[in-house]
Amino acid sequence: MTSMPLVAAVALSLLSPDGSTGAVGIDMRNVHLRVAADAALEVAWLHGTLRPTHAGNLPVFDDPTSFDMAIEDAEVSVDAASLTALVNHAFAFKGSNLSEVSVSFDGPYLVQRGKLSKGVTVPFTVTASVSATPEGLLRLHPEKVKAGGIPATTLMRMFGVELDGLVHADPARGIRIENDDLLLDTGRMLPPPAASGRLVRVVVRGNRLEQTFGRGAAMRPKSGGNYIWFHGGTIRFGKLTMSDADLRLIDMEPSDPFDFYSAKYDVQLVAGYSKNTPQHGLRTYMPDYARVAR
Fold first, then answer.
1. Could you read off the pLDDT of 162-194 as tens digits, one per residue?
2. Spatial distance between the Cα atoms of 178 and 160, rounded to a whole number of angstroms
3. Which of 14, 27, 64, 171 has CB 3.0 to 4.6 Å from 193, enough for a Cys bridge?
């Protein structure tokens, strides 16, 4: 087994002589990407870049606020449990009047249940259709709404209000209201690093919300295992800095998706091993997070 500190002297260089930094390319294939302790994304394929959040700096993998991720092409899905966690995170701000939100799927529809506080606390159920807006956001359009067991359209008509007059949303957390529709910027709903990308297609399939960004499947490689690949630019992991990056994190158990938790990557790193390439790249083989977390 080769440790990362020993590999560093051979495989990882210092910053380039002119001190240049910048965006780092990122590609993923077949990754179960844990974005929080209670939420994960299923990344079938992703191509994009990591961009430093401050000029002159570089992406530091241990500091998710030091960079954001610009998604160019991707196919990503999320299950009901993870989407529930992300929606609750997005509404966990001072002044929010939604609580105990849960998400499920019913055929092609997304169903949200929770509690709305507006003087009194009322349980609600919203059954919504899903679509992508021209600007690349996820639109949830209510097809059926009930509050306290009464069709909400009746209540709202009686009081002359629309959804944006009832629900408090924070656009900085990726949610805004347009008439009676919820518009979600799913990248902003994630914990750091922030992600951005143009959503072109969304559909409910089984117990997952499937999203396509950019060209999606047209760019997906047909083979090559399960991996996360950082390439070009300069990136830092722990005490190590790699310029003209060529660092590939590879699933040691390719029979199922690569279970990777960025906030705990060092645990997977220590449990794996690394090899160098003739071109001074680094290939790091990691076990699934679920295995080492035990």
1. 444 445 666 777 888 887 788 999 888 888 898
2. 16
3. 64
Average pLDDT of 27-50? 95
DSSP string, 206-262: TTEEEEEETTGGGG--S-S-SEEEEESSEEEETTEEEES-EEEEEES-TTS-EEEEG
- According to the model, what pLDDT value does residue 20 have? 43
Assess contact for 238 and 246: CB atoms under 8 A: no
Residue 223 CB-density burial (10 A; 0-12 exposed, 13-18 middle, 19+ buried)? exposed
pLDDT for res 238: 86
Spell out the alpha helix ranges (H) of the chain: 4-11, 80-90, 152-159, 186-189, 265-270, 289-293
Please tell me the pTM assigned to this model: 0.84
**What distance in Å separates the CA atoms of residue 236 and residue 124, rounded to the nearest whole number?**
46
CA–CA gap between residue 190 and residue 52 (Å, rounded): 17
Say if CB 290 and CB 18 are below 8 A apart.
no
Backbone angles phi, psi at 16, to 5 degrees: -60, 155
Q: Is 119 helix (H, G, I), strand (E, B) or coil?
A: coil
Of 21, 90, 83, nearest to 57 by C-alpha is 21
For the chain, domain boundaries: 13-34+46-69+218-293, 81-211
Find the mean pLDDT for residues 16-40: 81
Q: In 3-state terms, what secondary structure has residue 40?
A: strand
Residue 168: the pLDDT is 60
